[in-house]
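We emphasize that the prediction below concerns an isolated chain of 106 residues; any contacts that depend on oligomerization or on bound cofactors are therefore not represented. The input was used exactly as deposited, without trimming of termini.
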Amino acid sequence: MVKITFIDSHGEHRTVEAEEGTTVMENAIRNGIPEIVAECGGGCACATCHVYVDEAFLEKTGKPSEKEEDMLDFAYKVQPNSRLSCQIKVRPELDGLIVTTPERQG
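Result of the prediction step, given as a token string:
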């Protein structure tokens, strides 16, 4: 299992154990992480699972696809480290991943 820490907009930390091959979003929903809405269920068709990836993991999570970048146009307060959590696959090298949620979703 891979550990992922979600930090909400109020600074509360929640660490979950995520199964390899799933997405960060699926693990957020499965564990009741607040501020992850995931209206489209992971289809990269909305921007309601927006997160900020911790700088230490930017290379490991990779760059957003063109489709994801298009969806991020609808996200709230996009930053250079913004990603849609439905597009980040859980892999062993992401153990310890830290993501922060904005105060609201797009």
